[in-house]
């Protein structure tokens, strides 16, 4: 199936998309125009349909999620949509939102939402985004995931660390240092996360996953939705350090707390969550190295420079945690 995923081409994509669209809207056809969108993890295409309508077809990378996990992501999106939260939920055709290709790949169709990406948010938009994240978390509190992953020190730290060490992507000269710093992160993160309450949430709520229509956001790409502490979605919006980042985070939480309380003490775990994401991210790249797009996207990966910088960054996070 991985080879089929790499070999996806516009012709085969349009054929399977048309077959699904025809079930929902008989007679509606694609014009033949298919534009590949920027996505490393999945294969995503903007398909033009007749009558000026467009649909976004998302083909899931094989082996990453089970059918149950993808369906649970979709169910969460439908629940958010029912709560009138601006998310991009998949099309449903005959009660189904996940479809197979003849080669065994899974795909879903989404409406095309037009909007603007913003690298930075002003004060009002930070508060607005915070209000919507609070509303997402209100739904997530009553939507327990049964199949999606749970953010934990083991899942995001120990397992990816072991994968990197066994992958052959890391020079043996760095093994001891990398293991030592990762194990220190895992130990500290396990303590920090142990008693934090968790909910279903977006999981990858950075600004690249929000589109703005004037002053209103749309939330995109719940592919990494998970069970995690609420602070996971907060720090992903405001990733920086220092007084300016603290001020932006306070504005975000001002909007958030208009809809639900937030335990401000959990902000102390942001650096450890950052470190876990770094470890997880390195393993994510290593697992996909056979995908031709990954060596092009990460040309320094597996070089001594990459691992020197990675180890140093993790050590800096641990130093910050020790300073309090």
Task: Give an overview in words.
By secondary structure, this protein is of the alpha+beta class. The protein has two domains: 2-65 and 89-111, Phosphorylase Kinase, domain 1 (2-Layer Sandwich), CATH 3.30.200.70; 123-323, Transferase(Phosphotransferase) domain 1 (Transferase(Phosphotransferase), domain 1), CATH 1.10.510. The protein is built from eleven helices and nine strands. It has a five-stranded antiparallel sheet with strand order 1-2-3-5-4, with helices on one face. A two-stranded antiparallel ribbon has the order 6-9. A two-stranded antiparallel ribbon has the order 7-8. Strand 7 and strand 8 form a beta hairpin. Helix 6 crosses helix 9. It is globular and about 65 Å long.
Distance between the termini: 48 Å
**What do the pLDDT scores average to?**
94
Strand content: 5-15%
Percent helix, as a range, is: 40-55%
* CATH level 3 topology of the largest domain: Transferase(Phosphotransferase), domain 1
* Tally of separate domains: 2
Net shape: globular
Q: Taking Cα atoms only, what radius of gyration do you get, to the nearest Å?
A: 21 Å
Report strand order across the widest sheet. 1-2-3-5-4
The second-level CATH architecture of the largest domain is Orthogonal Bundle
Number of strands: 9
Uncertain runs are: none
CATH domain class name of the largest domain:
Mainly Alpha
The biggest sheet amounts to: 5 strands, antiparallel
């Amino acid at each position: 199936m991985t080879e089929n995923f790499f070999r996806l081409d516009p012709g085969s994509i349009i054929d399977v998309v048309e077959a699904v669209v025809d079930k929902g809207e008989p007679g509606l056809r694609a014009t033949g125009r298919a534009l590949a969108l920027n996505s490393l993890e999945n294969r995503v295409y903007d398909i033009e349909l007749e009558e000026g309508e467009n649909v976004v077809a998302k083909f899931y990378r094989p082996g990453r999620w089970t059918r149950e996990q993808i369906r649970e992501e979709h169910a969460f999106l439908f629940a958010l949509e029912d709560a009138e939260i601006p998310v991009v939920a998949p099309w449903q055709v005959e009660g189904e939102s996940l479809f197979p290709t003849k080669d065994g790949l899974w795909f879903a169709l989404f409406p095309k939402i037009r909007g603007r990406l913003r690298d930075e948010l002003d004060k009002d938009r930070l508060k607005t985004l915070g209000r919507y994240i609070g509303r997402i978390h209100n739904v997530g509190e009553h939507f327990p995931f049964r199949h999606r992953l749970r953010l934990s020190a083991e899942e995001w730290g120990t397992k990816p660390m072991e994968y990197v060490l066994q992958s052959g992507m890391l020079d043996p000269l760095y093994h001891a240092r990398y293991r030592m710093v990762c194990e220190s992160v895992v130990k500290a993160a396990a303590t920090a996360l142990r008693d934090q309450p968790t909910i279903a949430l977006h999981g990858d709520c950075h600004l690249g996953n929000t589109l703005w229509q004037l002053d209103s956001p749309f939330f995109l790409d719940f592919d990494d939705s998970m069970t995690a502490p609420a602070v996971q979605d907060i720090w992903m919006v405001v990733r920086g350090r220092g007084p300016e980042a603290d001020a932006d985070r306070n504005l975000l939480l001002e909007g958030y707390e208009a809809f639900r309380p937030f335990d401000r003490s959990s902000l102390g775990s942001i650096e450890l969550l950052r470190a876990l994401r770094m470890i997880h991210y390195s393993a994510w790249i290593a697992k996909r190295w056979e995908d031709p797009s990954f060596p092009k996207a990460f040309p320094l990966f597996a070089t001594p420079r990459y691992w020197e910088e990675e180890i140093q960054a993790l050590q800096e996070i641990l130093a910050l945690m020790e300073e309090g």
